[in-house]
Description:
Helix content: 25-40%
Oligomer: single chain
Strand content: 5-15%
InterPro entries: Caleosin-related, EF_hand_dom
Strand order of the largest sheet: 1-2-5
Bound molecules: calcium ion
Radius of gyration: 21 Å
Keywords: Membrane, Transmembrane, Transmembrane helix
Family: Belongs to the caleosin family.
Protein name: EF-hand domain-containing protein
Organism: Meripilus lineatus
Amino acid sequence: xxxxxxxxxxxxxxxxxxxxxxxxxxxxxxxxxxxxxxxxxxxxxxxxxxxxxxxxxxxxxxxxxxxxxxxxxxxxxxxxxxxxxxxxxxxxxxxxxxxxxxxxxxxxxxxxxxxxxxxxxxxxxxxxxxxxxxxxxxxxxxxxxxxxxxxxxxxxxxxxxxxxxxxxxxxxxxxxxxxxxxxxxxxxxxxxxxxxxxxxxxxxxxxxxxxxxxxxxxxxxxxxxxxxxxxxxxxxxxxxxxxxxxxxxxxxxxxxxxxxxxxxxxxxxxxxxxxxxxxxxxxxxxxxxxxxxxxxxxxxxxxxxxxxxx
Length: 310
Ligand SMILES: [Ca+2]
């Protein structure tokens, strides 16, 4: 997703575009996206082709930041690019807390874990659409609710970890850590659940400190915070894709720590160690796209289905 800075109000709106690549342009409440993956400049979305061409020619080049001024033509007569109304979804009907505590309408998005590369979230197998009744944090844990009754039992967590190829020891340890930490805060009322079950409807109460702040306190996904993780602590590969080594993820936990927040730091350590073990990248670099899949839970289903096929 790309946002421009408005230079001056006029009939033809001007923007400064700064990005290493352009996947979409947001202007006056509308999104402009390339058709079939390429911008068709011959039919012109924008009048200043020269700058646009410069960006598009180098759109996959790394370590280059482009600054260009673009003047749009009449929005109603533009062709050569797809245009649709830009809408930001911040509430989920069956998650009341998202209505009670609405965010400012910036880049928050409840239903999809969006990045510049995946502006519509996970589209494989219609994942985002299938999970539109959940916040992204709820999607993150949905995989472990094996029977889809909205409650995650310790046995379901163990089964889920085993499906993700973790060994018995790590799976049992994870059940202990996860259910001792999240069962009480997600239960209804004040009386603890003797079975240590986790209720997905209240999973937003399980957000801890010293994290990346990618999830907000209601469970929404904040793209800015997600991408900040990689620009602050990760590295960009020769192919332009951002990634993070295990050491860099530890630097992230250290850098994001809050004062005296031992629980949050320990939680962050557990999450990044388990994420690295899950991804187990051959080159030692956790790719942004795979980490995004962990955040919205789609990666869990991907790994699980690969195992079943094998
Ligand atoms: Ca269940």
